[in-house]
Write a structure and sequence with these properties.
Strand content: 15-25%
Oligomer: single chain
Largest sheet: 8 strands, mixed
Number of helices: 11
Strand order of the largest sheet: 3-4-2-5-1-6-7-8
Radius of gyration: 17 Å
Bound molecules: adenosine-5'-diphosphate, magnesium ion
CATH topology: Rossmann fold
Helix content: 40-55%
Order of helices and strands: EHEHHEEHHEHEHEHEHHH
């Protein structure tokens, strides 16, 4: 059975795409077959972290939703992008595929204006899981509440709710948690990102856990090296010994 894990946040820029991409990389290191679907149709971007040039997209999620192709035809094998000077893939490594969303302005506006059949998206999740024999299907989402987000939350085995230590994020997280509880998501984990390294992470984690009565899967530090990298690669593969990478590995084991 494929485990479906959605990464979501109420507000934008919390680090969803970076966390999803790095989690996928660590699952591959653990021998898992993984696919990521970029359901951030309005502002796709996770392909950038895998160094994937949009010119190389044969089909995108948009094409699938318009009935132009099968879902598995949109998947690009990006496993080779995990290899860095600091990290080699073990012999039993898995594979990671990416289903990108279109970055063409006309295609983005068309799908936003005309909408699409949400059931097709649901069928796509099921079909790609079967046809690529996935252990994990990771869904990277657009912030806030919209139709594809609600669908992805409803069908997830695990929801990672990303928040920064920020009062706007705190309120929004309560709203999303409320929705996730109503939809009976089996595993809910809060992921705190961009925590100032000077903070007491244990205290922060304990406080957030008791406020939301929800487990905290990881507290990830604000890291200048990630800012410097600027989504130009997979941080955990470039800096495997960094505390950020250790926390991502621990999160990969929890999901
Ligand atoms: N822990 C972190 N420390 C510093 N910068 C980060 C961290 N996590 C993410 N970022 C940066 O924040 C920005 C938004 O990250 P991204 O993963 O695209 O978020 P989202 O998908 O939620 O919009 C990117 O520029 C990324 O490099
Ligand atoms: Mg994103």
């Amino acid at each position: 059975m494929t485990r479906i894990v959605s990464t979501h946040s109420y507000r934008g820029g919390t680090g969803k795409s970076n966390i999803t991409a790095n989690l996928a990389a660590n699952l591959v290191m653990m021998g898992k077959r993984v696919a990521i679907i970029d359901t951030d149709i309005q502002s796709p971007g996770i392909h950038v972290l895998f160094g994937l040039d949009p010119q190389r997209f044969r089909f995108t999620l948009n094409d699938y939703l318009w009935g132009h192709c099968q879902i598995e035809e949109t998947a690009v094998d990006v496993t080779s992008s995990l290899v860095t000077e600091a990290t080699r893939l073990p012999q039993n490594a898995g594979r990671v595929f990416l289903v990108p969303s279109s970055v063409k302005a006309g295609e983005i506006t068309r799908i936003l204006k005309d909408g699409y059949d949400v059931n097709a998206l649901n069928d796509g999740f099921r079909d790609i899981s079967e046809r690529l024999q996935l252990d994990y299907l990771l869904i990277d989402t657009h912030p806030g509440m919209n139709e594809e987000t609600l669908l992805s939350i409803a069908i997830s085995d695990c929801l990672l709710l990303v928040l920064r230590p920020d009062h706007q994020d705190y309120q929004g997280t309560a709203v999303t948690l409320d929705v996730a509880r109503r939809l009976d998501v089996p595993q809910l984990l809060l992921v705190v990102n961009k925590a100032l390294p000077a903070f007491d992470f244990q205290e922060l984690s304990g406080r957030i856990m008791s406020t939301y009565r929800t487990p905290v899967g990881a507290v990830l530090p604000l890291t200048l090296d990630i800012v410097r990298l600027g989504s130009g690669g997979l941080f955990t593969m470039l800096y495997p010994d960094h505390p950020f990478s250790a926390s991502i590995r621990s999160l990969a084991e929890q999901i």
